[in-house]
Design a protein that fits this description.
Order of helices and strands: HEEEEHEEH
Oligomer: single chain
Number of helices: 3
Strand content: 25-35%
Structural class: alpha+beta
Radius of gyration: 14 Å
Strand order of the largest sheet: 1-2-3-4-6-5
């Protein structure tokens, strides 16, 4: 999948997340996806290619970077807690959807219970 397809899949996935919203605060080249005011995903174009930046559990982030050449530390973010995903041969639609959902769950799980739009432990788990 190329970078534009990656971003479309990630954007489509967010439409199904309760309380999710998109902002264009930094500049028109950055899309911030938030839940209850907290960022769970960013999209931008790094020089030459579109990317998606997602929150990840530090242990999972390390494993993902080891397993996928197209997943690197978070661009302009905390390198331990964020990953950058770019289009390429090692990332498929299912993985993108899982990563977006997990990023959302991590952020919702860190919110006070009164601000959580869903139970992060039960959301989207079958």
């Amino acid at each position: 999948m190329d970078g534009q397809e990656l971003q479309k899949i990630a954007d489509d996935c967010t439409a199904q997340l309760p309380g999710g919203e998109v902002e264009h605060r930094f500049d028109p080249d950055w899309d911030l996806y938030k839940v209850s005011g907290k960022v769970f995903m960013l999209m931008t174009d790094m020089p030459g290619h579109p990317v998606v930046i997602l929150k990840a559990d530090p242990a999972d982030a390390e494993a993902l970077r080891e397993q996928h050449a197209d997943i690197t530390p978070g661009y302009h973010m905390n390198k331990q807690h964020w990953i950058t995903v770019q289009g390429g041969g090692t990332v498929d639609e299912e993985l993108v959807r899982e990563l977006v959902s997990e990023s959302y769950r991590l952020v919702v799980g860190g919110l006070p219970r009164s601000r959580r739009p869903v139970d992060p432990h039960a959301h989207d788990r079958a």
